[in-house]
Write a structure and sequence with these properties.
9 helices; single chain; 3-stranded antiparallel sheet; alpha/beta; disordered C terminus
């Protein structure tokens, strides 16, 4: 099986006999979205079936009246929970689903049809974003880049090669390059960390790990300890969890052990108190501004 929702055998069997969403060619898809924008149709819902790291660098965007739902999935099997949680909201809606090449939508649209029988209509983009970019090289309704599972990693529309919709998770500057392969320490999902922030964190800008991919994904206790010169912690001995904090506290040797991400290129692991300086998604810039990293 190419893609799996990790369903039980009986559900899988019932999906096999369920019709998928109505396939729309790229031209039909574009025309349908154009009509929805013209009519300001608030019954239209766009669902991106891809994983969170894919949606961060590219997506379809129409009129603000057209609802966009991002399941924020870390893996495709998360989509089933998203449907269950949003079944009521999708009732009586015209649902337009898309993914990279159309494969995931085949199963996702069947599951949606089964769980939300009250959905007015369910459509899926035939050939996915890949086919749409070929039909609309100027970009059309697609913004940013299409994430691919091959050496290209991200493919822009021919007419929008410089269109960047992603952002560094630390400083929030526009950024969409996954080639450094930075990953969340907790769930191992790819995250976007710009060149300057990688240098700030590691001193080298090489391959590494970010503290957390979102406010819901908290970094675990590190698997090992690493000796490194440390900067003073802004909170000093008021820090709530000095065992996990990478900064120096009163009475500690600046050359002593510090908790990092398991290898010498890992990013700093911050305790809840220090990470809270930048809010739930931790902004490196706010920590720098607060002098938590020193001068």
């Amino acid at each position: 099986e190419v893609v799996s929702l990790d369903l039980d055998e009986s559900t899988e069997a019932s999906l096999a006999s369920t019709e998928p969403g109505c396939h729309l060619s790229p031209n039909e898809w574009h025309a349908a979205l154009s009509r929805a924008v013209e009519l300001r149709d608030d019954d239209t819902v766009l669902i991106d079936v891809r994983n969170m790291y894919e949606t961060r660098i590219g997506y379809f965007e129409c009129d603000p009246t057209i609802s966009k739902l991002d399941p924020c999935s870390r893996k495709f099997s998360d989509f089933s929970k998203f449907v269950q949680d949003n079944a009521e909201n999708l009732h009586s809606k015209k649902v337009y689903m898309y993914c990279t090449g159309g494969v995931r939508c085949e199963k996702a649209s069947r599951y949606l049809r089964q769980c939300v029988p009250g959905a007015k209509q369910i459509f899926q983009l035939h050939g996915g974003i890949h086919s749409y970019q070929e039909s609309f090289p100027e970009g059309g309704f697609f913004r940013g880049k299409n994430f691919t599972y091959d050496p290209r990693i991200a493919v822009p529309s021919a007419g929008r090669k410089n269109d960047v919709v992603g952002a560094c998770m630390l400083c929030l500057t526009p950024y969409d390059d996954y080639t450094p392969q930075w990953r969340c320490q907790q769930c191992r999902m790819l995250v976007l960390v710009c060149d300057s922030c990688r240098i700030q964190v590691t001193g080298t800008g090489g391959i590494g790990e970010a503290a957390a991919c979102s406010g819901q994904c908290q970094p675990p206790a590190p698997p090992g300890q690493l000796r490194r010169q440390r900067k003073p912690c802004k909170f000093g001995n008021r820090c709530r969890d000095k065992t996990k904090c990478s900064f120096l506290h009163d009475g500690e040797d600046s050359g002593g052990t510090a908790s990092f991400g398991g290898h010498s290129r890992g990013a700093l692991i911050l305790c809840e108190t220090c990470r809270a300086v930048g809010g739930p998604t931790f902004s490196m810039q706010s920590v720098i501004d607060s002098k938590a990293l020193g001068n």
